[in-house]
Design a protein that fits this description.
Layout (H helix, E strand, L loop, with lengths): L12 E3 L2 H10 L2 H12 L3 H7 L4 E6 L7 E9 L4 E2 L12 H14 L31 H5 L9
Antiparallel strand pairs: 1-3, 2-3, 3-4
Length: 154
């Protein structure tokens, strides 16, 4: 990690909104975060970062009484010794797809979303075209989640 190197902060970059979150973030010590990670995952945060050869990462935490809290650890640019900050964009790849799918299935379980109903029923502004299988056939939420809606890239 970048702790202790010249020009790189030893504590993580923190972000939040409002005075309560800022107080919470300020109340956390780096050691508390590392201890919590090791307790949950059985490995030290810095060791895991080194083992995976990850130069830097962002972490978000929340517990039942405090939070949320977000921090940035490590380097944005290793060779230049530039620390990672929370206002820097990180590539997330296709991470949004499984997260969206999990949230959709939670909404289905709660009765807030119907997989086989028209996806247009849940859209406020945009409208999806008819399904490619035939006029009047609706594109469903299930089609969208399974990437079988037949939509062409624009």
């Amino acid at each position: 990690m970048s702790a202790g190197r010249e020009g790189v902060p030893a504590s993580p970059s923190v972000a939040g909104e409002g005075p309560d979150l800022r107080e919470f973030a300020a109340s956390l010590r780096r050691g508390e975060i590392e201890d919590a990670f090791q307790a949950l995952h059985g490995v030290a945060l810095e060791d895991r970062q080194r083992d995976l050869d990850v130069p830097g990462f962002a972490l978000a935490l929340r517990d039942g009484t405090r939070g949320p809290w977000a921090g940035a650890f490590g380097d944005w640019h290793r060779a230049r010794g530039v620390a990672l900050a929370l206002d820097q964009a990180l590539p997330a790849g296709s991470l949004g797809k499984p997260v969206a799918g999990a949230l959709a299935m939670q909404a289905v379980a709660a009765g807030q979303l119907e997989l086989d109903g028209s996806a247009n029923a849940y859209l406020q502004r945009a409208r999806l075209p008819d399904a490619p299988c035939g006029p009047g056939d609706a594109i469903t939420v299930r089609h969208l989640l399974a990437h079988r809606a037949g939509l062409e890239p624009s």
